[in-house]
Write a structure and sequence with these properties.
- The chain is of the alpha/beta class and 522 residues long.
- It is 39% helix and 20% strand.
- It has 17 helices and 16 strands.
- The longest helix is centred in the C-terminal third of the chain and has 21 residues.
- The radius of gyration is 28 Å and the shape is elongated.
- It binds zinc ion (ZN).
- Zinc ion binds next to loops.
Length: 522
C-alpha cells in the first residue's frame, strides 16, 4: 500500500510561535523535502502573503525530483464571483500544478463565523473548485473543522464533501482543525465518510490533545490515502501531526509506503536540517530522529544492547538514519565504557590493558566533576590518548583575559591575549569579544587558525555552564562547561571543568579544536 505525504511545514508549520521563514529558508526546506521524497510540499499562501508569492516565483527555477509544490488558499468570499476573488487569482499566479483550498464544513462556522447561508457556502465550495479547474489546476479540498462539523450536523458536513467531490476535487482532506478529536472516534467518522462520499480522502490533524500522530495513523488504517502534517510537528498552538514520526511508523510498523524506496534512511538528517533552518533545537527525545532516541544509559540496558540490540530497541536505528549511543555516567558499568571504546576501536579486546587505563581515567575525571554523557568528542580524545594514538597539534603557553564592566552597547567588553606554539613556532595573538570567554575563543582560533586554516569552518553552536556543588561557596564552586561545535557538516561536544569558568571554557575549547584537527588528519 502506498499513501501520499503532504508536507505543510512551510505553510501550516510557519504558523508556529517562533518560526519566521525567509524565502531562502523556504527554498532550503523545500529542496530537503524533495530529496527525502514527500509527494507534496505546501509552501505558502500567495493570496495573503507577498513573501509566499515571491517564493513560488523563485521556486520555478528549481527542478523538483519527487515532490509537487502546492499553493494554499481558500474558497471565494461570500456573494462574489470566483473570478473576482483576489485570493483565488493569487493562487493561479503561483503557477503550481496543484492548489489546496480550504472551505467550511461546519454549519456552526457557516452561520456564526462567516455569517452566510448554508446554500451560499456550498456554492462557494463548488464555484471555487470549478474556477480553479477551468484554469488547469488540480485541486485538493481541505474541509476545515470537518470532525467538529460532523458532530454538530452530520448531514451538512457530508453535503459539503459531496459538493467538493462533484466539482472535481482530487482529494478531500478532513481537518481536525481544533485538534480535539480522539483517534478511534476519528476512524469511525472516516468510515462513515467512505460509505457516503465517492472520493479520495485525506487527513489533516492538529495536536491539541497530544494525539495528532496516532489520529493520522488511525485515519490511514481507516482508508485515508493522504496525510497532511509538518516536520517535527511544528504548527500553531500545540502543532500539527508530526510527519517524521508518522512516516517511520507507517513504513516500519505497517508496511505502508510513504517515500521512494531507500529514502527512509534520510529521515533523521532531514528532520535535523529542518529544525536547524527553523531555528529550533530539536527535542532530544523526538521519536526515531532525536539524539536520545537510541541512547542507552542504565548499565543493565547497555549490557543487554551490547549482547543483542533487540533487547532495548524497537527498531534498528540506521533504518531511519539515526545511531545508537551509549552514555557514560557513574551509574554505568564497565561494559558501557567498553561498548563506547568499541565504537571508536572495533577490534580492541576486552582484556586490553588500555581499557583499565581509560576506565580509571574516566572515574578520576568524573570525581573531579567531568561528565562525558554530553561530551562524546572529549571522551574520544581521551581514548586516543590512552591508546597513544594522539599527538598534540599545538601547545598553549599562556593566556590572559581582561574584562571590563559595566559593558557598553556596541562595544566589546573583554579582550584576550594568547601565546601558542605549533611545531616550534611561536604565535602571540589578541582578540576582543563579548565577555572574556568569547574573546578567548576568538584569540585561540585566530592563533591556531594561522597554522590550520581548516579551523575557519568551525564555530560554536552551543555553550552550557553548570555550577556543581555550590553549597559552601557559590563563587568558588566547580564549574562544568560543555560546548558544542560544528563545521556545518557534523557537530561534536567537549567538556571542561575548573573552579574558574574561563579555565573550564578554555579546556572545552581546546578539546574542540584538537578533535577537529585529529579528525581531519586521521
Ligand atoms: Zn492546519
Amino acid at each position: 500500500m502506498v499513501i501520499d505525504i503532504f508536507d505543510s511545514t512551510l505553510r501550516d508549520g510557519a504558523q508556529a510561535e517562533g518560526i519566521s521563514f525567509l524565502v531562502t529558508d523556504k527554498l532550503k526546506i523545500a529542496k530537503a523535502l524533495d530529496e527525502l521524497g514527500v509527494s507534496y510540499i505546501e509552501a505558502g499562501n500567495p493570496g495573503s502573503n507577498q513573501k509566499d508569492l515571491e517564493f513560488f516565483k523563485e521556486a520555478k527555477n528549481y527542478k523538483f525530483k519527487h515532490s509537487k509544490l502546492v499553493a494554499f488558499g481558500s474558497t471565494r468570499r461570500c456573494n462574489i464571483k470566483a473570478e473576482d476573488d483576489n485570493n483565488l487569482n493569487a493562487l493561479l499566479e503561483a503557477s503550481t500544478e496543484y492548489v489546496c483550498i480550504f472551505g467550511k464544513s461546519s454549519l456552526f462556522h457557516v452561520e456564526n463565523i462567516i455569517n452566510t447561508t448554508k446554500e451560499e457556502n456550498l456554492s462557494m465550495i463548488k464555484d471555487s473548485i470549478l474556477y480553479l479547474r477551468k484554469n488547469n489546476k488540480k485541486v485538493f479540498y481541505d474541509a476545515e473543522h470537518f470532525f467538529d462539523g460532523y458532530k454538530n450536523n452530520r448531514e451538512y458536513a457530508l453535503e459539503t464533501l459531496k459538493t467538493a467531490a462533484e466539482a472535481g476535487a482530487e482529494c478531500l482532506i478532513l481537518c481536525d482543525t481544533n485538534g480535539g478529536t480522539f483517534p478511534l472516534e476519528m476512524a469511525k467518522i472516516i468510515e462513515d465518510v467512505k460509505k457516503n462520499v465517492n472520493a479520495k480522502i485525506g487527513i489533516h490533524a492538529h495536536n491539541d490533545s497530544g494525539m495528532a500522530t496516532s489520529a493520522s495513523i488511525e485515519a490511514v488504517l481507516a482508508g485515508c490515502t493522504q496525510i497532511q502534517g509538518t516536520f517535527l510537528g511544528y504548527g500553531e498552538r500545540c502543532g500539527n501531526a508530526n510527519l517524521s514520526t508518522i512516516i517511520a511508523n507507517l513504513e516500519l510498523k505497517k508496511n505502508i509506503c510513504c517515500l521512494p524506496s531507500g529514502n527512509l534512511e534520510k529521515l533523521t538528517s532531514t528532520a535535523k536540517f529542518i529544525a536547524e533552518v527553523s531555528n529550533f533545537q530539536m527535542a532530544k527525545g523526538m521519536p526515531y530522529v532525536g539524539d536520545s532516541a537510541f541512547a542507552h544509559k542504565a548499565g543493565m540496558h547497555i549490557d543487554g544492547v551490547y549482547k543483542n540490540p533487540k533487547s532495548f530497541e524497537h527498531i534498528e536505528p540506521d533504518k531511519v538514519g539515526n545511531e545508537r549511543r551509549f552514555l557514560i555516567s557513574e551509574v554505568a558499568g564497565k561494559s558501557t565504557v567498553i561498548a563506547k571504546i568499541n565504537k571508536i576501536y572495533p577490534d580492541i579486546k576486552k582484556d586490553d590493558p588500555a581499557i583499565d587505563v581509560i576506565i580509571n581515567r574516566v572515574k578520576t575525571l568524573e570525581y573531579m566533576g567531568y561528565a562525558f554523557e554530553g561530551a562524546d568528542a572529549s571522551f574520544e580524545l581521551l581514548v586516543h590518548k590512552a591508546l597513544k594514538n594522539f599527538k598534540s597539534f599545538f601547545e598553549v603557553e599562556n593566556f590572559k583575559t581582561i574584562g571590563e564592566g559595566p559593558s557598553l552597547e556596541n562595544e566589546y567588553s573583554a579582550s584576550a591575549i594568547i601565546k601558542v606554539i605549533v611545531e616550534g613556532e611561536e604565535e602571540v595573538t589578541a582578540a576582543n569579544g563579548d565577555g572574556p570567554v568569547d574573546a578567548l575563543n576568538k584569540a585561540l582560533r585566530k592563533a591556531i587558525g594561522k597554522f590550520y586554516p581548516i579551523l575557519n569552518e568551525v564555530s560554536l553552536s552551543d555553550y552550557k555552564v553548570r555550577i556543581l556543588d555550590g553549597k559552601e561557596s557559590a563563587t568558588a564552586a566547580i564549574t562544568r562547561v560543555i560546548i558544542e561545535s560544528t563545521d556545518g557538516k557534523t557537530s561534536w561536544s567537549t567538556v571542561g571543568v575548573s573552579k574558574d569558568i574561563i579555565e573550564a571554557s578554555f579546556k572545552a575549547l581546546t578539546d574542540s579544536i584538537e578533535y577537529k584537527l585529529f579528525k581531519e588528519n586521521n
